[in-house]
Amino acid sequence: MSADAVAGVISEHGRAVRAVVLALGERGWTLADLVRAFAVPRRTVEEVLSALGDDLAPGGELRIRAERAAEYRRRFDRRTTELADPLGPALATVPDLLAQVTRLRASAPPPRRALDHVAATPETAVRRALWLDAHFDLDGAHLLCVGDHDLTAAATCLLRPSLTATVVDVDERLLAFIDSLGLGIRCVFGDLRFGLPAAAAGRAGLAFTDPPYTPEGIGLFLERAIEGLVPGGRILLAYGFSPRTPALGLAVQRTFGELELAVQAQWPAFSRYDGAQAIGSASDLYLLLPTSKAHRKGRAKPTIYTHGEQSAEASSAAPGEVAAALVSAASGPDRLPVLGAGPTPGALRTAGPTAPELSGERPLGALWTGGVPAPARSGAVAVDASADPGSWLLRVLLAVDARRLAVAVGNNHPDLADAAGQQALAELVAPKWALRFRRSTPGPASAIVEAVAAPDPADRGDRLVRHVLDRAHGRLANVWRDALVTHAGLTKPQAAARVAELLPTPAGIEADGALMEVPRHRLGPLFAAVRASVPNGA
Q1: DSSP 207-238
Q2: Which residue(s) pair with 360 in the sheet?
Q3: What pLDDT does 80 receive?
């Protein structure tokens, strides 16, 4: 009998499954709606549907046959305590905010599976904002969002305009979108595997993150959140796991102790998602309190995601034929000595005996945060960026100063996909590099970008931009000031005043960040301002 089979599933998985059964007796559902409404893993819902068997009504919707629904209600409907949603009354008072966030969510860049993006519902973003407002004094506070595809910072700043926020993300599309909203949000580019950008460190009283749901991803994002806090700050973490896989949940929760984070509170199934059905399309909200020992720099494992080339199971080293072609391209016709760089140690040791010998190796993270050592600048650099999520190529071109540079990327890289993309990248870095794009090299899945150091520009404005491009790790305002002193003959006070006058956004990342941290969409206006800073007659 189907009801007996259903009773067995309820016995194994608990009350939430009973709620699913009763809901199926009331109206029709889609599978995704059932998972999200009751925060039950998809596999468990599928077990319920299988147990119902012939008692399921035919047709496109999932529901119990009308003549059998009363029997299921009689058998499984019980009087139980129902807890009211503590945020329900507050949510009812902000319909305009919910409508606005819904519109923003619809126009935001789509999720990227390779970055473990699963879109939270607009209501979830508003609930997060309301929860923060109910538990913390947001007036004049600063919120750090360590990744923010769900627009939590936007929702919270719309609710409390006196709040300021910083969003750090590797997705350039997202940063451009958030920046376009005109809210009190500083957008900072950063790949957290290579550190928290200095412009975001030690500033926030609150940090929020909904990270990749691997132990490596959770640990890394939490470490970066810790680095972004002022003493006494708190971390809000969205994390969920299926009750079918408690070992994974335990592995993540052990990370809290390893990082010296106390769990001050936990709210089950707080966030809901359009996806993530394996965990019931829901995650818990954790309030984490760092101890005095929690402020420490963390690891930078490159494979932290659950999908694609950057997943925890993926290899991040280039194949031998790619490594060989990359090192040869870097060395060039002059057979320059080559410094190799990749996401993992030894990434280019597979180049083989026919490739030029490496003069040294440098982790990609060290290159990202500090460039190349001075002795290597007279030679060449080969960078294995095969696992580039789409934003590494430009940053490598900014980070490296050398006579030649070769970068291995995927053949479908967005900067190489068409002539327009190639031209845009080439023009952006033209004062520093002359680029050559070699698609399908050495095979159909890979490409190599060759960069040769450009001669000193004749135009004084371009010389200023070249000065800035060559010092991508320095504080941008100071680098720009020094460029005016060196190339335009201004005194330091005159140059500093000129920079302050022409900064594209006085409170933006350009004021106190490095060029490496400036989102891509802001680089064009920045370089235009640098060129315009040349005094008349200079």
Answers
A1: EEE---SSHHHHHHHHHHHHHHEEEEEEEEEE
A2: 339
A3: 74
φ, ψ (nearest 5 deg) of residue 85: -70, 115
Q: Helices 66-76 and 2-13: crossing angle, nearest 10°? A: 40
Chain segment 471-508, per-residue pLDDT in tens: 999 999 999 999 999 999 999 999 999 999 998 876 67
Closest CA to 274 of 128, 110, 148: 110
Q: Are 408 and 399 in contact (CB under 8 A)?
A: no
Task: Give how far the C-alpha of residue 354 lies from the chain's centroid of Cα atoms, to the nearest Å.
Answer: 38
In angstroms, how far is CA 372 from the centroid of its own chain?
25
CA dist 471 and 460 (Å) reads 17
Return the pLDDT at 344: 77
The helices-and-strands tally (H runs, E runs) of the chain is 21, 13
Residue 309, by phi and psi: left (phi above 0), alpha (psi -120 to 50) or beta?
Answer: alpha
Give the pLDDT of residue 417. 92
> ∠ CA(89), CA(91), CA(95), 5° rounding?
125
Encode pLDDT of 251-302 as tens digits: 999 999 999 999 999 999 999 998 788 888 899 999 999 998 886 545 555 5
For 207, the enclosing helix (H) or strand (E) is: strand 204-209
Q: In what order do the strands lie in the sheet with 164-169?
A: 185-189, 164-169, 142-146, 204-209, 229-239, 282-290, 261-272
Joined tokens for residue 162: 């006196």
Domain boundaries, the chain: 2-76, 88-290, 320-453, 460-532
d(Cα 79, Cα 95) in Å, to the nearest integer? 32
Neighbours of 156 (CB within 10 A): 27
Give how far Cα 168 sits from Cα of 151, 156, 201, 443, 518, Å: 12, 16, 11, 34, 10
For residue 256, what pLDDT is reported?
95
Tokens of 241: 């796991």
User: And the tokens for 401?
Assistant: 């100063």
CATH architecture of the region 88-290: 3-Layer(aba) Sandwich (3.40)
CATH architecture under which domain 320-453 falls: 3-Layer(aba) Sandwich (3.40)
Say how far apart CA 254 and CA 257 lie, in whole Å. 5
One-letter amino acid for residue 237 of the chain = L
- Report pLDDT for 408: 97
Phi and psi at residue 242, in whole multiples of 5°?
-80, 140
Please name which of 210, 365, 88 lies closest in space to residue 383, comparing C-alpha atoms: 365
How big is the chain by its Cα radius of gyration, in Å?
27
Burial 343-358 (b: 16+ CB within 10 A, else e): beeebbebbeeebbeb
Q: Establish whether domains 88-290 and 320-453 are of one fold.
A: yes
Task: Name the DSSP class of 508.
Answer: S
pLDDT under 50: residue ranges of the chain: 297, 304-308, 311-315
The two structure tokens encoding residue 209? 């993150």
